[in-house]
Request: fold
Amino acid sequence: MKKYLALILAILMVASLCACGQQDDATAEGELVGVSMPTKDLQRWNQDGDNMKTQLEEAGYQVDLQYAANDIPTQVSQIENMIANGCKVLVIAAIDGDSLGTVLAQAKEAGIPVIAYDRLIMNSDAVSYYATFDNWNVGVKQGEYIETALDLANAGDKTFNIEFITGDPGDNNINFFFDGAMSVLQKYIDAGTLVCPSGQMATQKEDGSYDKATVATANWATDAAQARFENILSSYYADGTQLDAVLASNDSTACGVENALAAAYTNDVYPVITGQDCDIAIMKNLIAGKQAMSVFKDTRTLAEQTVKMVDALMKGTEPPVNDNETYDNGTGIIPSFLCEPVACTADNYVSILVDSGYYTEADLA
Ligand code: BGC
Reply:
């Protein structure tokens, strides 16, 4: 009898433990996650938003996904609404990394953890985690591509003309993209191998970082990039001067450069142009030989990592990170997960983009 009683007791204990486990999951299940994206204008953010929504819903969460039309007050009020609607975790790709301090103080007050998505949110101690790509490495890949394509290491007395363009000054990522690329290219500028005819260059500061005001593009806008490059081309290249390379930090700015070249470049030698994102429109340009490379950042992987972070926060466990030293947002290091970027060219895009199911051949035709 005693034996049976002990057995029944053991079964009851196991059953109650299981019930506890289920209760934890049940508590997290159905909770609301706020996902704030900067704009629908750029292809990638649509994919990011869709991936996040799908994967979070598959994990059992409800999702409030909002796009802010690249307008900072809109993003702030969307986040305020998410907080008011009772979201339990916020995932934010900031339009301007420095403009969310006040609304995030409200999140902190309400005990809502914040994950910075792709772009670091600066100067706010409400940011708990950061999920992004290895942004420095994105720039290094762009710089290395130009270095190899022009064979700069063996240039001898030869000189090459280069122009520069990066993204929005309020996006902390440009500091990694641009400075990462310059970590490869600066020595060729110093040696006189790379020359910038427009003189529109970022100036290197004492700490080695760059002041990018001259080469920045508000909102990463294609139109603004095109206007600036039409100006450069008509002022410095109208006599047929050859442009050998353009360091462009992403595809939307590269696209502006390509439009300007189509309108106003007369030399037969087409420049080597870098980019990032592997947007469909740009991949068509790349396949047509108008852009040399892009950097592929698989938004499916970023969403996957971010959903793991959300899930861990909901369940009170440790979110997975792989970097605890690179990203200081002004209040200290933010524990980060960095996904790997991949250089994409006309030679490898099929295996990277089509074979992986990211695009179909038809998308790129
Ligand atoms: C992202 C890039 C994107 C750019 C413009 C950056 O913060 O990392 O992938 O091209 O913003 O939206």
In short: The chain has two domains: 31-133+299-334, 135-296. The longest strand covers residues 127-133. Residues 31-133+299-334 form a domain with the Rossmann fold fold (CATH 3.40.50.2300). The chain has twelve helices and 14 strands.
